Amino acid sequence: MEAKREVLRMENIVKVYSNGVMANKGINFSINAGEIHALSGENGAGKSTLMKIIFGEEQPTSGDIYINGQKTVITSPQLAIKLGIGMVHQHFMLVSSMTVAENVILGVEPTKGILINMKHAIKQVEEIAEKYNMNINPKMKVEDLTVGQKQKVEILKALFRGAKILILDEPTAVLTPQETTELFEELKRLRDSGYTIIFISHKLNEVKELCNRITIIRHGKSMGVYDVKTVTEQDISNLMVGRDVILNIEKSAPKIGKTTIRVSDLTIIGENGKHCINRLSFSLREGEILGIAGVEGNGQLELVEALTGLRKYNAGSIEICGKEISQCNVKDIRKLAVSHIPEDRMTTGAAPSLSITENMLSDKISSNSFSKHGIINKRAIKQYGIDMVKQYQILCKNPDVSIDSLSGGNIQKAVLARELSNNPKIIIADQPTRGVDVGATEFIHKRLINMRDNKKSVLLISSDLNEVLGLSDSIIVMHEGRIAAYFPDAAKITELQLGGYMLGIEKQSEEEIKEVRHGQ
Amino acid sequence: MDSNKRIRLIVDITKLIITILVSCGLVTLIVLVTSSDPVNAFSSFFLGPFTSVRRIGNIVEAASPLMFTALAVIMIFSAGQFSMISEGAFFIGTLGAMMIATSVPLPAGIHPIVAILVAGAMGAAVALIPAVLKMKWQVSEVVTSLMLNYVVQFFAIYMVSYHFREISSSSLASIEFKDTSILPVIIRGTRIHLGIVLGVILCIITYFLLYRTTFGMKLRTVGNNAKFAHYSGIKVTGIMVISQVIAGALAGMGGGAEILGMYNRFKWTTSPGYGWSGIVVALLARDNPLMVPLAALFMGYLNVGANIMARNSDVSSEVVQIIQGVMILMIAAEALLKKWKQKMIVKAAKSEAGMKGDVIND
To answer: Structure pTM?
Structure first.
């Protein structure tokens, strides 16, 4: 290690946000040239904040940054780019109506007089792509690319701007196993050519496979730097959470009951005239967790919206507990004891500046236990807030603080508290643990399994294959608005098999898929 | 976060004090530059309003209409809407009250009540237009309400000029209100009328509505995140429309109370602009209905001061418009005192985290 040159060192970084949240409490962080360095920690541990500070998006409250041994103040992302730091965000920052080359050169266009030298640009992009074996056509429009390809464009963008240090923020969260393998190849090649990569992830198997060293952060403090070879996944996980975590999801055999949701020949046509959902049929039964796997954008969102009354459908039918819901609004469907954990907790699942209690009450304020004749019962509401915070282990000073002062995992627990405290019959859980730390994930999984053991139906939509495989009793794979495969027993399949169906390489026969209707 | 709440309160109050001081400083500056007798102008502006019971009464009278329009603004803004209709709703309210006061014979006591209710109904009807346009066709309520304010203003003046005009008067004025319709004065020696009591009661009712009812909670949820409200099963568009209708009714009643309390004829040739000042008052009150009376009194004080100054010295009363503008700017300025606030937050966070050492900031 001594021989390695240190390219970046952060000393005693403290960051306090304007809402009083102390995200970093004196973190030391250092990386060497030519390594892939993992940064792991629960959500809300302060990883993203630390990276934003490196990239100049946030200023540290105190602490120093040294680049190549030189003390530097990174005032803006522009300066960070100049210093050779590149960032690939979790949410891509691309203009979808432009081509790959246009996106890559945006802001640093090679010019010929006052015109953009497009030919030169395309050639340059091609050269870089070829050099690192990234198979991508610079003339393609970004909107036509797959998620994995878009990510490549992001990496190209950073390289084109002369980045020597690449920060990747949970890059595999949106990828299929095949795409992940490809990404890892590319990253290793980049490392071997002298680039330095900071790899943010809490997927421990990936860290083990890809990275050289790991820095673990917990509650805004560094828990130390380790050589990845010398620590086990369990060690890392314990350091992240600070206690022993059960990585495997344990559950008993399902006790299947009556059908609760029956979807027949459902068709939804999107705004662009495309069939988002194309003659989809399946049924969900009591006491089972039915997982829906698939690359994002293959109709899962539309399906969830149709099931919860947020979207009308064009043809087919959805029956919930025997009632056809085409004429129902959100409230009617909620009355049928359907709970919905939405995909995006901040835009759909919470009102950011209202209190935690108010957020947990938004769907049931009119019920008799919280109000009479339209006037709210302050005492009952206060008690409910205190009870829920305790029961769902929401970390907060008190239930009256605004919900946006909480970390992602705790906001998700509040969403869960709202949705599961209604005594639902059906739970539609859309990416229930996305961006949620290990501890909270474990908690959420346990709750969902507990619901299923109490004869509830759970529909689980997740792009995390580990989660789908671990939690589900049976699995549907969706591809282009249709069911590509149905597996009655989730225990009998592997990630790799699922991947093939998710990418549309394989498809089951009609007979096999029909099984999902359970003879109806 | 208790420490956070405390810090926010301290910063808010300090900001308010600075805003007021800057406003006063600005008046001083303008007076010094323009007046040949600045001492007289100063004393007229700052002390003038307190020199007699009648003038103190004037402050309260000037505050009265602003309370109604500020409540309307709070109602609309809390639902996340940006309708500027409180201006038009107020003015149509004066028209409605005038029509009842001049043309419908009713017994005393009941007469002003009916007139104010009609004023509220007409305000609500006007506010409904941009709300429905938005609900049905997603037309921006900002644009429609601003335009509609002009339509309303000229419609009211048209009605007075062609249907209710006092023919013997050379300037535009309506026929005289019936005696039974006038709101009684409640403090002798002033013109403080019963309308102000109505205003204060409505402040309390609005607070109760927003913070103690299910409707209020739904309304605030819609205002904070409409998508989330929809997801929770709340009828979002309905709430948006109702909030604007209530706002229109509040402003309309304000118009009715103002004209029946302060005048015996409709004499405006242009809208007095209480709807706009209502926005300033709502901002000053930090969208809290219970703070509205105080904020309105402060605005009333400025207005009265400016009027006295205009009468006694060579500085015109338009100074108040400048002050209003500056106040909006300062209240809306997020960055004001931000560094100081951040310093306090860092300190609090550090002490909670048990960390020692000096605060190094920016």
So the answer is: 0.78
